């Protein structure tokens, strides 16, 4: 059996095509490129039943990933994260069928490991020895770690306000870290100049076509874990939007393969913070692309992206699934991060908490009904963001002293 049915790259805007065996970044028209597969041929050779017994990583779907030769796979065991039922919290917000897919339980502690695993594997296959990328933290950490395993040098530029642990992940893995006084958009400009000057591989979001392929495996897993009958609504924290684009791409591929129980796709919801909501603003205005969001700020640092290169693909995925885009307050992000920990025992990241806050708002407005299956994506470990936990006075006892008063 072939390792991959990948055939070529194509542009979603101008329809130009490119070889999957050479290094390509953006299309000549400036659009991101997408990997295409011979799904008709794959359909006759691979069945969903054949997945049984395969390794519990994202590489169980290797036929639908872009790495052509198995020996080029760089893996740390990423993927196949659990989906848990949020029974107590769901009941309290009138969503008894509320679920969470926890992407914090992958190498490097965030869903960015998926894009790094596939992106680095393909970079290795293409002969890349040096790459550069801007990041809000987690992506840079993941790509540095996977690059180290592949023997590739990683240049990482992140804002000075990025979570401190992500800096340390880059440094300990031997990545070359640069901090910038500004946002990820400013880091992107610095990387673009570096790439031109040093003829380096640009691993920026959607400027290489393979990160999205790693992210799309969340969609394949969701389908398999729900026994090929998808939930009604999926909420995703959206910055660059690659995860949401990838999940939609996965569902489209699964439809073409005939693996889904029906052709009704989940309504996809892009969740943003009120402090940075360019996708929400564009969706509400009926626009096909977004406008740069000035002075963006949110504690959910991973979705602090003022302008996404693939915004048109995010907006298309929302529109094609009758989904929506919604912004939540910083206060609600804090509240629901705490609620999930206290009621469900899961310490999720602020971005993940934003999806729970959004589900609550959409239930209150009846956009989501009481009897629908709702899946929220938690994209990282809460412990990577210790500064988001509100401080409180903790009683200190002397040796032998008994607890005398109620804990406040």
Task: Tell me about this structure.
- The chain has a domain at 83-109 and 212-387: Rossmann fold (3-Layer(aba) Sandwich), CATH 3.40.50.1100.
- The strands form three sheets. A six-stranded mixed β-sheet has the order 4-5-13-10-11-12, with helices on both faces. A four-stranded parallel β-sheet has the order 8-7-6-9, sandwiched between helices. Strands 2-1-3 form a three-stranded antiparallel β-sheet, with no helix packed on it.
- It is globular.
- It has helices spanning 39-45, 87-92, 112-125, 138-150, 164-172, 184-198, 211-225, 242-257, 278-284, 311-320, 330-344, 350-364, and strands at residues 6-10, 17-19, 34-37, 83-85, 98-102, 130-134, 153-159, 176-180, 201-202, 233-237, 267-273, 324-328, 374-378.
- It contains twelve helices and 13 strands.
- 35% of the residues lie in helices and 15% in strands.
- Helix 3 packs across helix 7 (211-225) and helix 7 (211-225) packs across helix 8 (242-257).
- By secondary structure, the chain is of the alpha/beta class.
